[in-house]
Amino acid sequence: MEVAAKTALSWRRRLLFSAVPLALAVVTRRDGTLNRRILRFIDFRVPPSSKPINGVKTHDIVIDSARRLWFRVFVPTQQPVDDLPVIVFFHGGGFAFMAPNQDIYDSICRRFARQVPAIVVSVNYRLAPEHRYPEQHDDCFDVLKFLDDEENCSKSLPEKTNISRCFLAGDSAGGNLVHHVAQRACEFNFQRLKVNGVLAIQPFFGGEERTNSEKKFEGKMPLASLKQTDWYWNAIMPPGEKYNRDHPIINVSGPKAVDISKIGFPATMLVVSEFDSLYDWQKRYYEWLKKSGVEVYLVEYPNMCHAFYIFPELREFEQLMWDVKEFIHMVLKKDNLKRVGMMKTIAENGE
Ligand SMILES: *[C@@H]1O[C@H](CO)[C@@H](O)[C@H](O)[C@H]1NC(C)=O
Ligand SMILES: *[C@@H]1O[C@H](CO)[C@@H](O)[C@H](O)[C@H]1NC(C)=O
Ligand SMILES: *[C@@H]1O[C@H](CO)[C@@H](O)[C@H](O)[C@H]1NC(C)=O
């Protein structure tokens, strides 16, 4: 990661980033379980704040305490809320780590809230390996059902929030959740909520096959090595059954894929980067979305690796904020002229 090395990145994040392989080795037990107690030393949590921090105030809403399903709401304080989009966000971390109150994700969501601007709902779904598929996907979908309920929505989001301006966003494992939750949302009859668009930021997909990008970056990047990704898939898939990595939840665009060509899958912005071992899986996802007739915008970040956006000091972080903002406003304005233009620019740059 030359670019990262040249930029003055906050020491703690850089440490965390480069320590991921080591940390994983320390917290994963041989029987496949996690020693989460050790994690407490590197895991920084931030409480919600009713006093605005960087122009955004936050509060937490519990949906179901028995399964610890809750979300953090980020509300920008400089704008009236009634015409703001609502971004329902699923964090990354291999389905096994991180949370909305983890400082990395608290600050990423805060930036989305301020810069788009938007109301952001960041979901605390259950983690693997203690919980397995489909619990994570169910938790995320249940948040949409909760927000669709008029009374629950008005109690948890600011008054006058327009929930028909909803977008789903997620990075890495959250990008996987975003895809499957969007698919379920298309087949569900919501009363008020509408998913207008999907933001899949370096989504985590895979398969039995080893792709070129996986082989090329093996042992060269701190995140998303084959050893790690195999561990994550084993951790989330139910044991004792014949789940391999060609399950449609993982190999999303393979021959066993669900046909999404007739369900009205929402407009999608797909963020990929050159030095991500998951790049080839994501490009296949892109081709498959296109083939299925989805309006999809591929945004490529050269020179970036997996999870580059945890470093707000990077120029590319600003670029990502800007791209997300552009996409959301373009979709909401139903600006077809601009859509065609954006498609064209992306096609010229990306392919
Ligand atoms: C609304 O909230 C209540 C209390 O948390 C919950 O029991 C109910 O299931 C929610 N409704 C929906 C549709 O999620
Ligand atoms: C909510 O947003 C939708 C979609 O942008 C818009 O058509 C509708 O008029 C808005 N409703 C209100 C009450 O502003
Ligand atoms: C996984 O997906 C790729 C295409 O993306 C395909 O070549 C491969 O055969 C798939 N495997 C299965 C069994 O679906």
Question: Biggest β-sheet, characterized?
Answer: 8 strands, mixed
Number of strands: 8
Whole-angstrom Rg: 19 Å
Q: Catalogue the unreliable spans.
A: 1-7
> For the largest beta sheet, what order do the strands appear in spatially?
1-2-4-3-5-6-7-8
Instruction: Identify every distinct bound molecule in the structure, by name, code or SMILES.
Output: 2-acetamido-2-deoxy-beta-D-glucopyranose
- Gross morphology: globular
Between the first and last Cα atoms, what is the distance in angstroms? Answer: 23 Å
Number of helices: 13
Helix fraction by DSSP (H/I, runs of at least 4): 25-40%
By secondary-structure content and strand pairing, the structural class works out as: alpha/beta
Helix/strand order: HHHHEEEHEHHEHEHHEHEHH
> How large is the share of residues in beta strands?
15-25%
**What is the average per-residue confidence, as pLDDT, rounded to a whole number?**
87
Descriptive report:
This protein has an eight-stranded mixed sheet, with helices on both faces. Residues 1-7 have low confidence and may be disordered. 39% of the residues lie in helices and 17% in strands. It has 351 residues and is α/β, with parallel strands linked by helices. The longest helix is centred in the last third of the chain and has 18 residues, at 315-332. Strand 3, helix 5 and strand 4 form a beta-alpha-beta unit. 44% of the residues are buried. The chain contains 13 helices and eight strands. It is globular. The structure holds 2-acetamido-2-deoxy-beta-D-glucopyranose (NAG) (3 copies). One 2-acetamido-2-deoxy-beta-D-glucopyranose binds next to loops.
